[in-house]
């Protein structure tokens, strides 16, 4: 009997050790249900804030998703993109068209009233991105929480680290690899874009005085209408044209048909490293078909743990737009 108990103790110890290692290596200290005792209303509160905005503005789905992506690629998923002020990440050109800040602010205000100083802005953003996808008929996934908020937000960091609209596939892959994300993650996670980020592609591609020849001829007038040559650059264009408020695979159909809004998007189809993943999402071969919904949720969890701050690192902001 004693030996059975000892064997059981060893098995339980090894199982616990494996779980701890898995959390440390893959989750970096975050876990599902982090606030189950300290603020059990966190998920319902964030979901309610997203639902309230989504009813009047369905574009907030793409906005929150893109905001979470832009946050994680600059100093990790630490909520630094939410900080306002001169020279912050919010003022960088790639972030000028971000949409959904008020959703995070509303959820934060409610959570501060219910659980003061407990829930980070970084976690609210991660949860809001998931909830927005669900509201747009997309998949759901369990969001590990426990992130803390960063205290530094610089526009230059956003310019240096975010994938650019004219990035080569090589550059895009490198930026994902630097964050321990794969080529498949790149194709899965790559929404809206400001006209300022790709206006040259429509009117003066690489100084030619004409458009990028890879743009489908019947799509060029649509883009030029949305982004006139002399516009102020602040207008937004959905990268998933035709179903921007629905969560589906039409983005991949668009780039296959030469209707990618950004040059970096279009290159995903033509490059032999990324093109097969596009084809597999569309069921066109190049390997076993991929279930986009399932792959997307897994990729979001991986991205959501890039460079997170946990434990005593960082802070819990009282207001998401300002450090304490």
Helical proportion, percent range: 40-55%
Number of helices: 14
Radius of gyration: 21 Å
Category from helices, strands and their pairing: mainly alpha
Uncertain segments are 1-27
What would you say this structure looks like, in words?
By secondary structure, this protein is mostly helical. The protein has 14 helices and two strands. The protein has helices spanning 2-27, 42-54, 60-72, 101-114, 121-135, 155-161, 169-177, 183-189, 199-203, 220-226, 250-256, 263-270, 275-281, 292-304; strands at 192-194, 236-238. A two-stranded antiparallel sheet has the order 1-2. Helix 2 (42-54) runs antiparallel to helix 4 and helix 2 crosses helix 5 (121-135). The N and C termini lie far apart (57 Å). The model is unreliable at 1-27 (pLDDT under 50).
